[in-house]
């Protein structure tokens, strides 16, 4: 390859498309729904309460972006069928997934969990019109990023050639909020346009037909810089530039940039930490309920709850941002945490 090589976001998009098409991601890393059924159940309960606050629209679209193995939605469906049959009946189920292989895995996971048909789409814009509740766990972190490196008074962009970074002049996004302060020489700034496009399209839909979304991911909620690109293979960090398609490439989500791209008129909630969000949704009570029902597994169930919510595990690094439009009262899980109210913004990374 001549020139500076392949732009990082193009490299990442190609690598992840190959990875999700050919590998089972979950041998390389474990996500919250794979840790415990409680994660999907609590989100299922959240959907039911949100649907009620939206005025019980019938029908409404329940959408998941980047469903992986389909575990979160299968657990949510089992709960909805059992405890919120009216919500389950009004629901139309739509999955946003680009990997044909993972679509098959999701269909299998959902086959016994829900009695309703499931539709797959490659893009949010293809989901039919109507009120919507959307869930996305570790979806935004998989979307391709660009990286810019501070050089003197300007910026160069990172490209990939022969498994190494090259740098070249490029069109740096002028007025990026991270640049209001002086940026030290050599520091890295990341942008993720597909994530911004996604929340813009999502917000536009919510404004038009009402609805809500919970975006869960690891990331930060203040203008920040630093290289957060990472690759995991067999649960261990590996060089992200080697063997594209053989490891999952992710980057931390910039929740502040996300919030700034939500169309005006949509309420933005948080972000809050995953620990606080799951506590507000009743993780402790559900843990003890399951532990009582299965005493032989009580230690395991409590350990899983700790892993999801403890600050030194996933409870602090993972954050949840809510969006809503046309909802009566505060968005469940984010009470008093509407962004712009002076309480909604979390700590920095
Ligand atoms: N939510 C799941 C899986 C996260 S892995 C969990 O919590 O376990 C990321 C998921 O997003 C995979 O299903 C992957 O195939 C999907 N994905 C990645 N890029 C995508 C894109 N551009 N459009 C739609 N889905 C995408």
Tell me what you see in this structure:
Strands 2, 3, 4, 5, 10, 14, 15 and 16 form an 8-stranded mixed sheet that branches. With 349 residues, the protein is of the alpha/beta class. It has helices spanning 8-22, 32-35, 37-53, 71-83, 85-90, 100-111, 193-209, 255-260, 274-280, 283-293, 298-309, 311-315, and strands at residues 6-7, 60-65, 91-96, 118-121, 132-137, 146-151, 154-161, 164-169, 188-191, 211-220, 230-233, 236-238, 248-250, 253-254, 267-273, 318-325. The protein contains 12 helices and 16 strands. S-adenosyl-L-homocysteine (SAH) is lined by residues 16, 20, 25, 31, 33-34, 66-68, 72, 96-99, 102, 137-139, 142-143.
How large is the count of helical segments? 12
Largest sheet: 8 strands, mixed
Low-pLDDT parts are 342-349
What is the N-to-C order of secondary-structure elements (H for helix, E for strand)?
EHHHEHHEHEEEEEEHEEEEEHEHHHHE
Structural class of the secondary elements?
alpha/beta
Name the shape in a single word: globular
Taking all residues together, what is the mean pLDDT? 92
Helical content, roughly?
A: 25-40%
Name the ligand types: S-adenosyl-L-homocysteine
**How much beta, percentage-wise?**
15-25%
CA-based gyration radius: 20 Å
Distance between the termini: 37 Å
* Number of E-type strands: 16
